[in-house]
Amino acid sequence: MTLRTILITGASSGIGRGLALSLARHDTILHLGGRDRGRLDATVEACRRLGADARPHVLDVTDRAGMERWIREVGADRLDMVFASAGITGGAHARDDEGAAFETAGQIRRIIAVDLDGALNTILPALDIMKGQDRDGQGRRGQICAISSVAGLVSYPGTASYSAAKAALDRFMVATGAYAGKAGIHLTSVCCAFVDTPMVARNRFPMPGLVSVNKAVRIILRGVALRKRRVIFPRWLVMGSRFMDMLPVGVAEAYYLRQPTGKPGSLPPVEEKG
């Protein structure tokens, strides 16, 4: 389908910014959302230099009413493509004297609020709009892509809330897509490993399978163009993670607890809000 009107959350940096720059062209209207005004404006200006009609909107994806208003305004005429790219990550704090490690309640709720509820605040209004749109010449009404994570395929001890949020998002997108496709709305979930973005730059551990933003964006856009339900990369790490998740919990845990990845205290704390 022709992608003329595109909405992207998390466009201030990382994958969201990369998607915006890759999709910027003369016949495209880009509605770009983010929390950081300065970085969002920089993305918008870069997209405009590439010929796109780029329009910024500063808001937090956890603002359900604000997201609803924005997306409905954008989709008043037609909404062709949505990328739910906003996300945060965090892990358990440093071990205590007993060897235990926990996330704070505030961090858990913030990660769930952004990575799951924030994605749904993007996806659900977009779905509603697309259901009411006319089909194009190929019988399609729209596409929605959500950025999940390989973390959603495993029960990693150090990143419990992040894994839980991404698992729920991936399952929602893949399962909902079965019937949404009958209505001409294609859903894609992206299960990727580490992408070299500002979000992971402060991680204090080796990041296996780390890929550049440009490579990640190319893979995502190719998957969307092929109308894949789930896009995975790097394949070896995703498939290995799926295998680990089939093992008895104690066996997988014994391996994970020996790894530096996501070790308690190795991820920066999450900004806790309301």
What's a quick, concise take on this entry?
By secondary structure, the protein is of the alpha/beta class.
Give the helix/strand layout.
Blueprint: E1 5-8, H1 14-23, E2 29-34, H2 37-49, E3 53-58, H3 64-74, E4 81-84, H4 105-131, E5 142-147, H5 160-180, E6 185-192, H6 213-225, E7 230-233, H7 235-246, H8 249-256
Parallel strand pairs: 1-2, 1-4, 2-3, 4-5, 5-6, 6-7
Helix pairs in contact: 1-2, 1-6, 3-4, 4-5
Organism: Brytella acorum
Keywords: Oxidoreductase
Protein name: SDR family NAD(P)-dependent oxidoreductase
Per the CATH scheme, the topology name is: Rossmann fold
**Which sequence of strands runs across the widest sheet?**
3-2-1-4-5-6-7
Compute the average pLDDT.
94
Strand content: 5-15%
The CATH class is Alpha Beta
Q: Which CATH architecture is right?
A: 3-Layer(aba) Sandwich
**SS content category:** alpha/beta
Helix count, per DSSP? 8
User: Span from first to last CA?
Assistant: 40 Å
Shape: globular
> How do the SSEs run, as a string of H and E?
EHEHEHEHEHEHEHH
Helix content: 40-55%
Please tell me how large the radius of gyration is: 19 Å
Overall tally of structural domains: 1
User: So, the CATH homologous superfamily?
Assistant: NAD(P)-binding Rossmann-like Domain
Number of strands: 7
Low-confidence spans? none
What is the makeup of the main sheet? 7 strands, parallel
